[in-house]
Amino acid sequence: MRLTISSTFYNFTLLLLSLVFVLLCAVSGSGRVPRAHVEGSLPSLHQAQNQTIRKSEPPTPDDPQVKTVLDKMAAAGIALPITVADVRKAYLFYPKLSGTPESVFRIQDREVPGPAGNIPLRVYTPGSTSGLPIAVFFHGGGFVAGSLDSHDTPLRSVSNRCQCIVVSVAYRLAPENKYPAAPEDAYAATRWVAEHAADIGGDPHRIAVAGDGAGGNLAAVVTLMARERGTPPLIFQLLIYPSLDASTMRPSWWTESNAPTVSRESKNEILSMYLPVTANLRDPFVAPIHAENLKNLPPALIITYKDDAPMRVESEDYAGRLTQDGVAAKISLYPAMIHGFFLMAGDLDGGKKCIDEMATALRNAFNRKSQTPP
Q1: Alpha helix (H) ranges present in the chain?
Q2: How confident is the model at residue 260 (pLDDT cuts 50, 70, 90)?
Q3: Which of 11, 156, 275, 337 could form a disulfide with 279 if both were Cys (CB 3.0 to 4.6 A apart)?
Q4: What is the model's pLDDT at position 255?
């Protein structure tokens, strides 16, 4: 059952919280954010596009590889992407950090029917064997950036290491196409893969979903959609530093949001491009963490990183709720990494490890399914 909290009531409550915060700051005279402050999200989300955006100063990283990557990003002008233009520029740059692309047995670009036109896919096939398991992958990029090309190099590696078909989905991006365009495309592509698995050499009974960042959100949302709509059957979900909550109301966004590549300001600005003004931030298809229950979902591996407290806390909370509802869930925590490290295996050992862990987890899930009696 979908949560049906009134969007108008919820948004009005958030506005009142924001006004209380302003009054508190005025009374204190300090102008500093109280440690336990909870932000009213929608008033911050829907700023005018030409409004000046304050940029946080990122910390100095401890890992020398991360420092080198951040220096390269700074030189490219993408050290802390906030606007849509910033994020799109960053996702054009990230492939330079992905390393040398591996050869794959077959790579095919195709288009499949979607709710508002065809959806581009890229299908990676590691060998000539038929009946291979399938991982449907949704790229990151804050719902406004990313493409089949931005994630090409790591997905080649995942396909080869896992010996599975990887289907990369180019869902519609905001602000040109706001919510629910992205999740509906993601679901339609996944359903098409299940219904046409044999056409691409795959096994319709061994399908997993995966994604990084915004793509991790979409992978989680697709599992909820599949459960609610009765199809397709999914056996695993792999979420890489996923965005699971659409607001920045958690205190950690104020007290510990100091990651070098993601800030409270950037999340609010980008989500304002993705969500309509009338969006309900507690809609599970916007924020999976607010689903009424997580029962009967596929097992999950959530890969995240230690130094981004707010997003890490979201992942830990989500894994805890999955476990409480009887779903096997594991958190894999990477120390000293930054948002986007899955795309940076050419420069970061953590990126290489992430690809290997992803491939191993998918392979294990597929093998467990193949050994399960019908």
Answers
A1: 7-28, 41-45, 64-75, 84-93, 152-162, 181-195, 214-229, 252-255, 264-274, 309-324, 349-370
A2: low
A3: 275
A4: 54
- Give per-residue burial for 198-210: e unless 16+ CB within 10 Å, then b: eebbbbebbbbbb
Residues 6+ apart with CB under 8 A from 48: none
The Cα–Cα gap between 44 and 267 comes to 10
Instruction: Read off φ and ψ for residue 58, nearest 5 degrees.
Output: -75, 155
DSSP letter string over 216-228?
HHHHHHHHHHHHH
Of residues 78, 73, 75, 80, the one with CA closest to residue 89: 78
pLDDT of 25 above 80 = no
DSSP three-state, residue 212 = strand
3-state helix, strand, coil split of the chain in percent (to 5) is 40, 15, 40
We find that the CATH architecture of domain 92-370 is 3-Layer(aba) Sandwich (3.40)
Please state, as a whole number, how many other Cβ atoms lie within 10 Å of the Cβ of residue 131.
13
What is the residue extent of each domain of the chain?
92-370
Decide if 146 contacts 339 (C-beta within 8 A): no
Phi, psi of 312 (to 5 degrees): -65, -40
Per-residue pLDDT tens digits for 198-254: 999 999 999 999 999 999 999 999 999 999 999 999 999 999 999 999 876 665 555
Read off the tokens for 125: 């096939």
pLDDT at res. 250: 64
The larger pLDDT score, comparing residue 57 to residue 303, is at 303
| Residues in the chain, overall count | 374
Residue 88 binned pLDDT confidence (cut-offs 50, 70, 90)? very high
pLDDT of residue 12: 47
